[in-house]
């Protein structure tokens, strides 16, 4: 998912090009916006953490662009391409990553990636329903 900071800064097309250049294909994508209830549900694993309220405020601050990416080892590959959570750390340890290039800090970090097949299934269903076809 391309997060509100990166949609706002008009980086969607550039990030899509990077994704294609890395050999992923797009199964589904759309423009949408999270309301407070859906953002809380999406990030339920972080409910109760100190940064949760500001994460919800950030994630509901503007449109997002969820995408279903397909490719060999897609989960690991996409998370490597995103770089570490903290964009400032990414600029040091993963300078070629998307967060290094487009992220601001450890919250406004431009992109989200599912971290396991189970969360990918849940998050695909969250945004696109149970139909996994293109
Ligand atoms: P994502 O789940 O969005 O792909 P991630 O797996 O790298 O990112 P998580 O630890 O799952 O990171 O945190 C989810 C999101 O919450 C982060 O991407 C970031 O936007 C925000 N976040 C995480 N840690 C912090 C923090 N310490 N302060 C502020 N925001 C944070
Ligand atoms: Mg995560």
TrEMBL record:
Residues 1-134 form the Nucleoside diphosphate kinase-like domain. It is an enzyme of class 2 (transferase). The keyword Transmembrane helix does not apply. Signal peptide: none annotated. One of its GO terms (biological process) is GTP biosynthetic process. It holds the Pfam family NDK. It catalyses: a ribonucleoside 5'-diphosphate + ATP = a ribonucleoside 5'-triphosphate + ADP; a 2'-deoxyribonucleoside 5'-diphosphate + ATP = a 2'-deoxyribonucleoside 5'-triphosphate + ADP. The active site is at 112 (pros-phosphohistidine intermediate). Keywords: ATP-binding, Cytoplasm, Kinase, Magnesium, Metal-binding, Nucleotide metabolism, Nucleotide-binding, Transferase. One of its GO terms (molecular function) is metal ion binding. PROSITE patterns: NDPK (PS00469), NDPK_LIKE (PS51374). ATP binds at residues 3, 51, 79, 85, 99, 109. Its EC number is 2.7.4.6. PANTHER family: NUCLEOSIDE DIPHOSPHATE KINASE, NUCLEOSIDE DIPHOSPHATE KINASE DDB_G0292928-RELATED. Belongs to the NDK family. This is Nucleoside diphosphate kinase. It comes from Marchantia polymorpha subsp. ruderalis.
């Amino acid at each position: 998912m391309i997060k509100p900071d990166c949609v706002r800064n008009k980086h969607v097309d550039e990030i899509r090009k990077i994704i294609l250049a890395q050999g992923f294909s797009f199964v589904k994508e759309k423009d949408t916006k999270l309301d407070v209830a859906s953002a809380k549900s999406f990030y339920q694993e972080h409910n109760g953490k100190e940064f949760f309220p500001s994460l919800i405020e950030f994630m509901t601050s503007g449109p997002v662009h969820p995408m279903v990416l397909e490719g060999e080892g897609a989960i690991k590959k996409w998370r490597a391409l995103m770089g570490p959570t903290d964009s400032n750390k990414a600029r040091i340890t993963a300078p070629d990553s998307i967060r290094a290039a487009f992220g601001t800090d450890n919250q406004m970090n431009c992109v989200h990636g599912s971290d396991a097949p189970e969360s990918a299934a849940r998050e695909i269903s969250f945004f696109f329903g149970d139909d996994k076809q293109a």
